[in-house]
């Protein structure tokens, strides 16, 4: 028996899912939640196998609730929502969701998705899968803040951390923090590679347009 927690802030949608899934062989709806905070509490209390999670809810949203539930190991989470923007998809998956389906999906696709997630596999709607593949093929370039760009620009002209701190009127520790963030965003480990890659990507003046 696959134990389910249904999370949606719309009572009619929630009731519809409960009715749909309660009639499905091998499924048992053990709890319902109207927001993310309640979902986290009920997941800890009832230990369902799968949480069907909406994304946009008042207070604690679906992404944050997913992160808390999966971090606690309370259950596996399957996103079931009407939203499919790239950022929302990635945020949900990064938070630990095992799948992402749309509410408009056919009933058999939702049921199959639940069974897959309960079995330790993933479940993605065809539309979402296509978006993820395209995102991987054409990743968005990293975005540096104005201050990170200033710091890296001064590194590019040969300034030391001490000189950068003096020029910008900030502490050396702050300069180091900015550089570490730049390294993380660019996926590099040293100043030279950071400058070279930033110029290649047109993130610094004089780089490729």
TrEMBL record:
The keyword Phosphoprotein applies. Pfam families: GerE (PF00196), Response_reg (PF00072). Keywords: DNA-binding, Phosphoprotein, Transcription, Transcription regulation. Residues 3-118 form the Response regulatory domain. Residues 137-202 form the HTH luxR-type domain. The modification 4-aspartylphosphate is found at residue 54. This is Response regulator. It comes from Microbacterium insulae.
């Amino acid at each position: 028996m696959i134990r389910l927690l249904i999370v949606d802030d719309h009572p009619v949608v929630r009731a519809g899912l409960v009715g749909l899934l309660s009639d499905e062989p091998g499924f048992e709806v053990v709890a319902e939640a109207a927001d993310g905070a309640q979902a986290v509490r009920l997941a800890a209390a009832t230990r369902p196998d799968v949480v069907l999670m909406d994304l946009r809810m008042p207070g604690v949203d679906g992404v944050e609730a997913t992160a808390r539930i999966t971090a606690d190991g309370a259950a596996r989470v399957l996103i079931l929502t009407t939203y499919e923007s790239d950022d929302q998809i990635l945020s949900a998956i990064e938070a630990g969701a095992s799948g992402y389906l749309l509410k408009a999906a056919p009933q058999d696709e939702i049921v199959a998705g639940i069974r897959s997630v309960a079995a330790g596999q993933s479940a993605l709607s065809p539309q979402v899968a296509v978006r993820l593949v395209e995102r991987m093929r054409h990743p968005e370039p990293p975005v540096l803040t104005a201050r990170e760009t200033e710091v890296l620009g001064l590194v590019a002209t040969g300034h030391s951390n001490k000189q950068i701190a003096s020029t910008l009127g900030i502490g050396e520790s702050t300069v180091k923090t900015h550089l570490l963030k730049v390294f993380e965003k660019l996926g590099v480990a040293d100043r030279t590679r950071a400058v070279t890659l930033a110029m290649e990507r047109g993130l610094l003046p004089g780089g490729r347009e």
